[in-house]
Write a structure and sequence with these properties.
The complex is a heterodimer of chains A (132) and B (383). By secondary structure, chain A is mainly α. Helices cover 87% and strands 0% of the residues of chain A. Classes of the chains: A mainly alpha (132), B mainly alpha (383).
């Protein structure tokens, strides 16, 4: 999806949203939700080739494991950000905070192998020093 | 009665002629021609990768063959060839290491830019934490490799020193430097104790403390541990340098004084033998001079050989550490270019730890080189 189409779609969606808001304000949040989901999907679709290129680039080096964790964390952060924005725009700040907390927990869970690796380096250092 | 006295005197004269003279003649023939038995024990402590590069003549039991080997390994061509072959592998490792760190820094910069677009501060912070952990993992792995290399170097040095003590003691004693042998052995034993109980035990905790402080500083820019870290580093290096300086001074002074005292005692004995024993006394003096030349030849051969082998053992570790340090410094500049300030701080600290490891390795090796130089330059008491 090229940028021209996306821009035209955005302008059309905003116009539609204005008309719907005047016609029946109750349907406006639904349209807004649909538009946000559409643009979120478009953003993820345009990011996918870039991410797959970066994954092939780092796959041949010794950075594969770390890069994978980073990309997954980036994906989680992006999804959390989109979801919490939608919730906040709909006036549901509690739900937005909940989504953010879950997103943070997911990122921290993803970081656990890295923390484990750092602890194993510390353990190795201690074993060299004879403090086992 | 006269007959019995005459036969008794003749028997004593024959006994006198047969026993000591034949024994000393055999000894003089072999002194300087055969390597001491402890020499093969010393060669066994040389690391396999260095041993492969040495000429076969160095492993012979005959001193002329060993001297030929030492002449070969002390030549400019051999040293240059060996250094380049050892350097080649290290440069390859350096490029791989730098590429890995640079790649990780690029990923970190991409992650930092991505996190800057997040409206939610908490999600952005969690993502930055994850990206910092990934960079830290990649860098700590490399830092651990450097510490591990230094530890194995100290293990090698310890093994070499253990083998060197009896070898040097034999060479000193062969030249009549008994007091110098005792002084050298006690100095090296003290060095060994120091190496086992202070350096080997403290170098890893010291590096671990520095790495931990650096990691904490990189993870959270609000924590300021820079002053504490620099105090730990300065005090550790000062203590190490001070102790090694005392050890070196003690070793040099005791060995030199011992050698002089042995020389004086032996000269008095030679003077007495030359004046009190009319005919044999002169030849004893000549005999001792020959033995002294042989011992000097052995000391020179073994001493130079040991210094070169020690330098060849030191060289890969030292070059590896220097290249690791260069890698951290270049990566820190690269991180600065990419705007990764946390990573830059961590890389600067890692470069600093490598610098201190280089200092520790160099200081500890210099004591052994000093002990060997004393052996080479110490004149035999017999001459």
């Amino acid at each position: 999806m090229n940028i021209l189409r996306i821009c035209m779609l955005a302008v059309t969606a905003v116009a539609l949203l204005l008309i719907v808001r005047r016609w029946n304000a109750d349907f406006a949040p639904l349209v807004r939700l649909g538009v946000t989901v559409l643009f979120g999907t478009a953003a993820l679709t345009s990011l996918t080739p870039l991410l797959s290129y970066l994954r092939t680039l780092t796959g041949d080096t010794g950075l594969g494991t770390y890069a994978d964790v980073l990309w997954k964390a980036l994906g989680i952060a992006l999804l959390t950000e989109i979801a919490s924005s939608i919730c906040r725009e709909c006036g549901e700040t509690g739900a937005a905070s909940g989504v953010e907390v879950i997103g943070k927990a997911q990122i921290l869970l993803l970081s656990l192998p890295l923390i484990n690796e750092i602890l194993s380096v510390a353990r190795d250092l201690l074993s060299i020093g004879g403090a086992e | 009665m006269k007959k019995r006295f005459f036969f008794g005197l003749l028997f004593c004269f024959c006994l006198l002629l047969s026993l000591p003279c034949s024994a000393s003649a055999e000894e003089t023939e072999t002194v300087g021609e055969r390597m001491p038995d402890e020499y093969s024990g010393f060669l066994e402590t040389i690391p396999e990768e260095i041993r492969e590069l040495l000429p076969d003549s160095l492993f012979s039991a005959d001193s002329p063959s060993v001297a030929d080997g030492v002449r070969e390994i002390s030549g400019g061509g051999y040293l240059l060839r060996t250094v380049l072959s050892l350097l080649g592998a290290d440069i390859g490792k350096f490029i791989r290491r730098f590429a890995t760190v640079a790649g990780m820094l690029l990923l970190s910069a991409v992650a930092a830019n991505a996190s800057a677009t997040f409206k939610s501060e908490s999600v952005g912070r969690a993502f930055r934490f994850c990206s910092s952990l990934a960079v830290l993992c990649a860098l700590l792995g490399e830092g651990y490799a450097a510490v591990s290399a230094v530890t194995s170097y100290f293990e090698r040095i310890r093994a070499m020193t253990t083998a060197m003590i009896p070898l040097m003691g034999t060479l000193y004693a062969m030249g009549g430097n008994v007091t110098a042998a005792v002084a050298s052995a006690s100095g090296l034993s003290l060095y060994l104790t120091f190496l086992e109980n202070f350096v080997a035990v403290s170098i890893v905790p010291f590096s671990a403390i520095c790495l931990a402080f650096a990691a904490v500083g990189a993870m959270d820019s609000g924590v300021r541990l820079g002053t504490l870290l620099s105090t730990v580093k300065k005090n550790y290096t000062t203590a190490l340098t001070f102790l090694m300086m005392i050890l070196g001074t003690m070793l040099a002074a005791q060995t030199t004084l011992g050698a002089r005292s042995d020389n004086l005692a032996m000269r008095s004995a030679k003077f007495a033998a030359g004046n009190l024993i009319p005919v044999v006394g002169g030849s004893v003096s000549e005999l001792l001079r020959t033995v002294s030349a042989g011992v000097g030849y052995l000391r020179g051969t073994v001493g130079i050989c040991a210094v070169i082998l020690l330098l060849l053992t030191l060289f890969p570790t030292l070059v590896d550490l220097l290249l690791v340090r260069l890698c951290w410094q270049l990566s820190a500049s690269f991180a600065d270019l990419l705007g990764c300030s946390g990573e830059k701080k961590l890389l600067d600290e890692l470069a600093s730890v490598s610098g201190y490891l280089i200092a520790a390795v160099s200081i500890c090796s210099s004591v052994l080189i000093l002990a060997l130089s004393l052996l080479i330059h110490c004149a035999s008491a017999l001459g």
